[in-house]
Design goal:
Radius of gyration: 15 Å
Distance between the termini: 21 Å
Shape: globular
Helix content: 10-25%
Structural class: alpha+beta
Largest sheet: 9 strands, antiparallel
Length: 185
């Protein structure tokens, strides 16, 4: 979620990114049969908008931050099973346990309650409410194949409303040392 501006502190950007990952599971997604995502390394592209502001991708969000904040953001992302690639795109790691969980995992910061609806093998919708930090949102997730999914989301948070969409594509079976994404708890 791009709640990013020149004034955003590193923790704000990380929270925004994690929020953006939420619908896309912001964590990734998997469906019950027959659509199941492959475990491994995934490229994750997101576009989001804060309020009525311009739509921004992750590279634009990062360029709006002071360079000194980047190492903190990268460390926080890595602890959550994410990393920036050479072009400021995002990569996530889904392990077999995440994929076998039976519902799309979301990564949300704070204490959250999530409800899922699964109308068919490829589509999911979700709603969540979180405290510490306070946020709530909803969205949809579509699994196109075991190697591709997309999502759209809307979030209400203290920093204001955020909306966006994301596309994820499987890259490799190995996560190359990146730890798998985990739901908090």
């Amino acid at each position: 979620m791009p709640l990013v501006s020149r004034l955003v502190r590193p923790t704000g950007l990380a929270a925004a990114l994690l929020g953006a990952l939420l619908p896309l599971g912001g964590r990734a997604a998997l469906a019950a049969a027959p659509q199941t995502l492959r475990p491994g390394l995934w490229d994750y592209a997101l576009q989001s908008r804060r309020g009525n502001g311009p739509e921004m991708n992750l590279a634009q969000m990062l360029s709006a931050m002071p360079p000194s904040a980047r190492p903190q953001i990268e460390a926080q992302l890595r602890r959550q099973g994410m990393r920036l690639d050479a072009h400021d795109g995002l990569q996530i790691c889904l392990d077999a346990k995440s994929v076998a969980a039976g519902h799309p995992p979301l990564h949300l910061a704070g204490h959250c309650n999530v409800s899922w609806k699964h109308p068919d093998a490829a589509d999911w919708s979700f709603h969540y409410a979180c405290t510490a930090p306070s946020a709530d949102g909803h969205g949809t997730l579509h699994i196109a194949s075991p190697t591709a999914y997309s999502s759209a989301y809307e979030v209400s948070a203290a920093q204001g409303p955020v909306s966006g969409q994301a596309q994820a594509h499987w890259v490799a079976a190995s996560c190359g040392g990146l730890p798998p994404m985990r739901d908090p708890g």
